[in-house]
Design goal:
The protein is mainly alpha-helical. Helix content is 73%, strand content 0%. It folds into 4 domains: 76-165 and 181-205; 208-350, no CATH class; 355-510, no CATH class; 546-703, Up-down Bundle (Methane Monooxygenase Hydroxylase, Chain G, domain 1). The chain has helices spanning 2-100, 104-120, 127-158, 180-196, 198-204, 224-241, 253-282, 288-311, 315-336, 345-349, 352-375, 397-413, 419-446, 454-473, 477-493, 498-505, 513-541, 543-546, 569-585, 588-611, 618-635, 648-657, 661-673, 678-686, 694-703. The longest helix has 99 residues, at 2-100. InterPro entries: EXOC6PINT-1/Sec15/Tip20_C_dom2 (IPR042044), RINT1_Tip20 (IPR007528).
Length: 712
């Protein structure tokens, strides 16, 4: 402790001698820092006063210099303005010179450059300069366009354009006249020069637009040379299908639609062979045939937009128009390759007023068709009843006609431009399915008393067929796309729970699920009614069999040949007759459900009402097993390989009742000694019992009377 104390004292002395040195060093540093700071402050004050005096001196110079810079900038702006005017005038003079020397290609190229300058100037606020530029472009564009158009029309006239007759009867156009190469060379030259005017033409010409309510997709103007080629056809169209001409009949839309298709067909070969190569050389990816079709399509759209309001409330005329438009669209897309993304007739039919009318008319005519199909004499007869291969579903005529009607409706609306319109048609289809289901239910209720009759079975086949077809449609790409669109709509409107949205998104459910569920429920109810009806007959026929004297029947050894119990005949005959009847009237899948439901009830009935309700001697047990395994089970062997597997209660009860006495005694002892143990289950499995519980087997063993007399 003393040594420790001495060490501590030495440490204290050392530290106490060092601390004053450190404090002195810190104070010295602080003094030096203070001196530096004072020096900096003095320098800052001096600099501040110098800068202020310099700024005061420079102020007048700054003001003079600013004024001069402003003047220079203004002069530069004026100079730039004058340069623009000079450039415009220079370009204008160049075009004039080129035209005077008949150098049209250079004039056209210069006009293109001028039009591009006009586009660049659009952001400028110099309105007068813009107006001057636009006026100059317009002036030269008109002169060049008129000159080129007249030359181009002259060449087209030499080629006998437009071709009014079909290609087979065209004498010129594609055949080569004597001066053919020269004509086509001139055609190409003029076509290319007109193409150069495209930029200025788009600047100056407002494209014809239908009202916004038709929601036509945005598209560039038809290229200028094709516009000129379309002019004579547009004149013909307006002459024949506007005003008071005999060809302008509101009830005959097919006239002008067929005319447009014929024109496209007549000119396709010329456009593909003569015009398309020119466009390919120039560079821009333009399809001559589609440009031509697009120009003619605008005539059709204008005509439709004008005609539809006049026949909107005449159901027959409106329906006829829609039919003709759909046929026109189909041919236009399939034969002439017109893309669905371009403006087409479906955009006009999608306009709100017209579309709602279309839905109403579609519903009205569909309901009329449903009335007629259900009231026809052949409504419940299958068209293919004599052709076994085709008639697997045994579909009545009314159900097949109805599904064909739905298929036709799908075909009519599948090319609509927007998903929201398609979804409205899908709702109409679902309403029609529901309406048809209700009508089937009403007819079914009238037939309830004859639930095994032909018409009742036909209704059941119809329900099954519609449900099956809808389930197939749910996997169709078109309806899967609609499901995705519906998912987006439901997500925005919060009309479905998160679970339902998730099921739709993961494809667990489909757009037809609600309908399919209702149809499946109806199918199950109808099958249950049939099963109950047959089961009541079976129970009636089994009354004698229930009263059979199972306790006193002769053993197998006492009979020469085992034969079917006489009292079982009515039961088996009823089963056989009804099974055959329904096998002929129901389709395979329905009949399979029917017999399996019936067998399930029959198995429980025989087990509970016949086996558990009686005692059996050796002969009785053997007779029961013979009746079941050699007569009842084989009735259903036509429908499955191992019918006994559907009669598990009966099959296993027969096993227990027919065990030889030794095995039965052994089993009884095991069950009593190992109740509920795995060994008891193993013992049951060993003799072929898997369905019956241990208690049931004990009850069945107690129903046996052929036990040895052991004094117990």
């Amino acid at each position: 402790m003393t040594e420790n104390k001495m060490q501590l004292e030495e440490q204290v002395l050392t530290i106490s001698s060092e601390i004053p040195k450190r404090i002195q060093s810190a104070l010295k540093n602080a003094e030096e820092s203070k001196q530096f700071l004072n020096q900096f402050l003095e320098q800052e004050t001096h600099l501040f006063s110098s800068i202020n005096s310099h700024l005061l001196t420079a102020q007048p110079w700054m003001e003079d210099l600013g004024a001069m810079i402003n003047q220079i900038e203004e002069i530069e702006r004026h100079l730039a303005y004058l340069k623009w005017i000079s450039q415009i005038e220079e370009l204008s003079d160049n075009i004039q010179q080129y035209l005077m020397t008949n150098n049209v290609p250079e004039a056209a190229s210069t006009l293109v450059y001028m039009a591009e300058l006009d586009i660049k100037l659009q952001e400028s606020s110099c309105t007068h300069l813009l107006a001057f530029m636009r006026a100059t472009v317009k002036f030269w564009h008109k002169i060049l366009k008129d000159k080129l158009t007249s030359d181009f029309e002259e060449i087209l006239a030499q080629l006998h354009w437009p071709f009014i007759t079909p290609p087979q009867s065209q004498t010129v156009g594609l055949s080569r006249p004597a001066s053919g190469p020269e004509i086509y060379s001139n055609l190409e030259t003029l076509f290319c020069q007109l193409l150069k005017l495209q930029t200025s033409d788009e600047l100056l010409t407002e494209p014809k637009q239908l009202p916004e309510k038709y929601c036509l997709p945005a598209s560039p103007s038809v290229i200028l040379p094709i516009q000129i080629m379309l002019t004579p056809l547009q004149k013909r169209f307006r002459y024949h299908f506007r005003g008071n001409r005999q060809t302008n009949v509101i009830s005959k839309p097919e006239w002008y639609l067929a005319q447009v298709l014929m024109w496209i067909g007549n000119h396709t070969q010329f456009l593909d062979e003569k015009i398309q190569p020119i466009l390919d050389k120039v560079g821009p990816s333009v399809n001559a045939r589609l440009e031509f079709s697009r120009g003619l399509m605008m005539l059709v759209l204008e005509k439709l937009a004008a005609d539809i309001p006049c026949l909107l409330y005449d159901d027959n005329l409106f329906c006829h128009l829609v039919d003709e438009v759909l046929l026109f669209e189909r041919e236009l897309h399939s034969v002439y390759g017109y893309p669905g993304t371009f403006a087409n007739c479906m955009h006009i039919l999608s306009e709100e007023t017209c579309f709602q009318r279309w839905l109403t008319v579609e519903r009205k005519f569909a309901l009329q068709k449903m009335d007629s199909m259900l009231s026809s004499e052949a409504a419940w007869i299958s068209q293919y009843k004599d052709i076994t291969d085709v008639d697997e579903m045994k579909v009545p005529d009314c159900a097949e006609t109805f599904m064909t009607l739905l298929l036709v409706i799908t075909d009519r609306y599948k090319n609509l431009p927007t998903a929201s319109r398609k979804l409205q048609f899908l709702e109409l289809q679902k309403d029609l399915v529901d309406d048809f289901r209700i009508r089937l239910t009403q007819v079914m209720k009238e037939e309830t008393r004859a639930s095994l009759g032909f018409r009742y079975c036909a209704i059941l086949n119809a329900v099954n067929y519609i449900s099956t077809v809808l389930a197939d449609w749910a996997d169709n790409v078109f309806f899967l796309q609609l499901q995705q669109a519906a998912l987006e709509v439901f997500a925005e409107s919060n009309t479905l729970s998160k679970l339902q949205l998730g099921q739709l998104a993961s494809m667990e459910s489909s757009v037809f699920d609600d309908m399919i569920n209702l149809l499946e429920r109806l199918k199950h109810d109808m099958l249950t009614r049939q099963v109950d009806h047959v089961f009541r007959e079976v129970k009636e026929a089994a009354k004698l069999y229930k009263k059979e004297r199972w306790l006193s029947l002769p053993s197998q050894a006492e009979q020469a040949v085992m034969s079917l119990s006489t009292s079982a005949c009515p039961l088996l005959l009823t089963l056989r007759d009804r099974s055959l009847q329904l096998e002929q009237q129901l389709c395979f899948s329905l009949f399979k459900i029917f017999w399996q439901m019936l067998v399930e009830k029959l198995d429980v009935y025989i087990y509970q009402e016949i086996i558990l309700a009686n005692h059996f001697n050796e002969g009785g047990a053997a007779q029961l097993q013979f009746d079941m395994t050699r007569n009842l089970f084989p009735l259903f062997s036509h429908y499955c390989k191992r019918p006994e597997n559907y009669f598990k209660h009966v099959k296993e009860a027969c096993i227990v009742l027919n065990l030889n006495v030794g095995s039965a005694l052994l089993l009884k002892d095991v069950l009593q000694s190992a109740s509920g143990q795995p060994s008891a289950t193993a013992a049951l499995n060993e003799v072929g019992i898997y369905k019956l519980a241990q208690q049931d087997v004990e009850i069945l063993l107690n129903l046996r009377t052929n036990w040895p007399n052991t004094g117990k």
